[in-house]
Amino acid sequence: MKNTTLFYLLILFLWSNKLISQENSNQGIISGNIQTIGQYYQEDTLINAALPDHQYGFNGFANINYQNGDFRAGIRYESYLNTLEGYPISFNGTGIGYRYLAWEKDKLGVTIGNFYDQFGSGMVLRAYEERQLGIDNSLDGIRLKYEPIKGMYLKAMIGKQRYQFVDGLVNGTGIVRGLDGELNLNEIISDSNKNSRLKVVIGGSFVSKFNDDNKNPVFNLPKNVGASSIRFNLRYNKIRFNGEYVQKINDPYPDNQNEQFNYIYKKGEGLLFNLGYSTKGFALDFSAKHMDNMLWRSTNVNVGPTDLLIGYLPALTKQHTYNLAATLYPYATNFYGEIAYQADLLFKIPKKSILGGKYGTSVAINFATSYTPKRKFVNDMENSRNSYSTKFFSSSDSLLFQDLNIEIKRKINKKVKLNLNYFNFKFNDNAVKVANYYKMIYAQIVVLDLTYQFNRYHSIRFETQGMWTQQDKGNWAFGQIEYTFSPHWYLAILDQYNYGNNNIEKRLHYGLISGGYIDGSHRFSLQFGKQRAGVFCVGGVCRAVPASNGLTFSFTSSF
Amino acid sequence: MKKLFLTITAIALFSTLSVAQSRTLPSVDVKTLDGENINITAIENDGNPIVISFWATWCKPCKKELNNISEVYEDWQDETGVKVIAISIDNSRSMAKVSPYVNASDWDYEVYLDPNGDLKRAMNVNNVPHTFLLNGAGKIIWDHNNYSPGDENELYEELVKLTE
Asked: What integer pLDDT is reported at residue A538 of this predicted model?
């Protein structure tokens, strides 16, 4: 009920503002949005879709924001009645899950209540919301932002992290404190250097946490743990070069699965680089990452995989969107550590050339690979408990994931657009444990996506996908037809068929029909059919979604 | 708690009646592709309309929309003086892919990054693509959440209405 105080403040403010506004007609702006998803479940033992006792699931989110000059305030009302299947059940009930007041004056910004923020790439601190995954680790406390001179940006914050939702916000017990500074040298030096061809931004952060959840009698656990990072961002003409280094001092966690990581006092480290060249119609980009023992939470007991995370560990892979490529063997960052590389090549074959055709052809090639770091175990679990040592970018031969994918996009003529994709995955499920197969999986996928535009209102899209693999559930076929009547209507029918499953009884069809109506910022959609169990990922963080059969209604709107 | 919420809603709804017509851009910082901070309210177009489109490198319909507009962008600019701003909501995982993609696709848009989702939240964007049209005075007069081939024509008609 401590939330209440803030609310009275908010109401008081809105109300007093209302009074003032009658005098100077400075009313401010109120805006908001709503998103709701309702599901009606049916039992389907064939695809393993269970029927929960409550039969219906419902998740709803509504934001209301108020802005008046440099003052802003907002709340988010959340309802999980009952929580949708596959969504974290630690979110349930109905109430207010987020509220804040913020103002800015003379280069100083203050936020009280909940806020989202990130330092650099987020490895040292990232408070964010990924609603589709049920991740929300917003900080609840106070944040200051200050720009003492042009080009110098300072941030300081302290707060508790959102942990669960039970008829309202439930914070974890740990405390997070953070400082961040960023210098934009081009802005600082002078305006005449603003057009300099060399652009330089440097930054650094320090984050510490206090946690006292773990009362383990055997180990002397640190109650305060610090982490720090430095970063740079360079650009010279068409070349960009960014990097960040992060380290964390001893921060032992229990690990029931792997004794070599159970309460270890080794420091964690991460190094991330990105080098790229891009010009009109051509881009080459390369990223490298060394990450070891960087699990970083505001608690030191076991919690859910995405709970109370302070740092974010970006996966160096492309996020796929075609169904079979995105949901069967997607890669999620390995918390223990990984050494990963990624390269992207994008180019446009010019129009009116032999290969390019009349309108030109776009090609995107992406290669990503990830290995376990080479760990030298030192056998010190009786005393210092460092457990092992690693060297930067020294990887073992244990492959976690490899992905080669090629996308070719071509406009054939005024009415037809073609998109061809090829994917080649090597997926070590023994380490990644996403498919419950626990062995190496080799898969290839081909996608053909064709859009035919009849006229300015009507178009039809055909999508066919095939996946070939000897492992796990075997081969899949996917087909979808989507008809759109711009700007209001769409209707789609799709089927997924696991025709290559070794178990003949599991060679099932998953049919789905969906339709929707869009009117400006209002969007209604209805979906009926079977949903395959799969993995849903955003930003390298994944959640397993169980199979379901039934009716889904969703609505989003903003004003 | 419930009462409180009702009160807030009531106030909110009441105020909306009088102000919903005049939504403008919120005062929020975004980043340029070079890492510079810029307040979105500082964006101007000499009294001509501005289109703001939220997108991400992992969002197919978003890229379709911006690529399709790109094909006719020069004509739109000549006829209506419009300027298109593309706001990428890519996070630190995919942010590095924005600049290569924009260049390789040959977009002539102003592109900004919103990796922390500050502008996205302030503009009440639930999902991408979400496209806004601002008139010459900076007021949001039209928005659309979704993209289907042909939707750009509706946007174009709104643009033409503005310049008539």
From this structure: 64
CB contact under 8 A, A11 and B11: yes
Three-state DSSP class for residue A371:
strand
**With contacts defined as CB-CB under 8 Å, which chain B residues touch A153?**
37
Q: Are the beta carbons of A30 and B12 separated by less than 8 Å?
A: yes
Record the tokens describing residue B149, joined without a space. 């081939």
Domain limits of chain B? 24-163
- The identity of residue A167, as a single letter, is D
Per CB-CB distance under 8 Å, the chain A contacts of B27 are 67, 70, 104
- Residue A473: its pLDDT value, please? 93
ipTM of this predicted complex? Answer: 0.88
Query: Quick one: pLDDT band at residue A19, thresholds 50, 70, 90?
Result: very low
d(CA A343, CA A228): 28
Tell me if chain A has a CB within 8 Å of the CB of B19.
Answer: yes
Q: Specify the amino acid at residue A513.
A: I
Lowest average pLDDT, out of A207-216, A339-348, A530-539, B151-160, goes to: A530-539
State which amino acid sits at residue A72.
R
Q: Is A28 on the interface with B (CB under 8 A)?
A: yes
CATH architecture of B24-163: 3-Layer(aba) Sandwich (3.40)
- At residue B20 the predicted structure's pLDDT band, cuts being 50, 70 and 90, is very low
**pTM strictly above 0.80:** yes
Report how many domains make up chain A: 1
CA distance A434 to chain B (A): 20
In a domain, A407, yes or no: no
Q: Measured between alpha carbons, how far is A413 from A415 in angstroms, rounded to an integer? A: 5
Residue given tokens 């095939």 in the structure block = A466
Q: Which of A95, A282, A457 sits opposite B150 (nearest CB)?
A: A457
Residue A154 domain-assigned (yes or no):
yes
Residue A300 lies in a domain: yes
Contact assessment for residue B59 and residue B129, using Cβ atoms and an 8 Å cutoff: yes
Question: Of residues A339 and A133, which shows the higher confidence score?
Answer: A339
Q: Please give the average per-residue pLDDT across A544-548, as a whole number.
A: 82
B46 touches chain A (CB under 8 A): no
- Structure token pair of residue A470: 């000897």
**Phi and psi torsions of B95, nearest 5°:** -55, -35
Number of helices (H) and strands (E), helices first, in chain B?
Answer: 5, 7
B141 touches chain A (CB under 8 A): no
Task: Determine whether the interchain pair A27/B20 forms a contact, defined as Cβ–Cβ distance below 8 Å.
Answer: no
* Predicted pLDDT of residue B6: 52
The answer to the question of residue A283 being in a domain is: no
What is the residue range of A155's domain? 88-253+295-312
CB contact A559 to B (< 8 Å): yes
Choose from A13, A31, A291 for mutation: most chain B CBs within 10 A: A31
Residues in B 90-129 with any Cβ partner in A closer than 8 A: 91-94, 96-97, 99-101, 103-106, 115-118, 121-127
Cβ distance of B35 and A201 shorter than 8 Å: yes
Residues 6+ apart with CB under 8 A from A8: none
- For residue B129, whether the previous peptide bond is cis, meaning omega lies within 30 degrees of 0, is yes
* Mean of pLDDT values over A33-50: 92
CA distance A310 to chain B (A): 14
A425-470 tens-digit pLDDT: 999 998 878 788 889 999 999 999 999 999 989 999 999 999 999 9
Quote the pLDDT of residue A14: 57
- pLDDT class of A171 with cuts at 50, 70, 90: very high
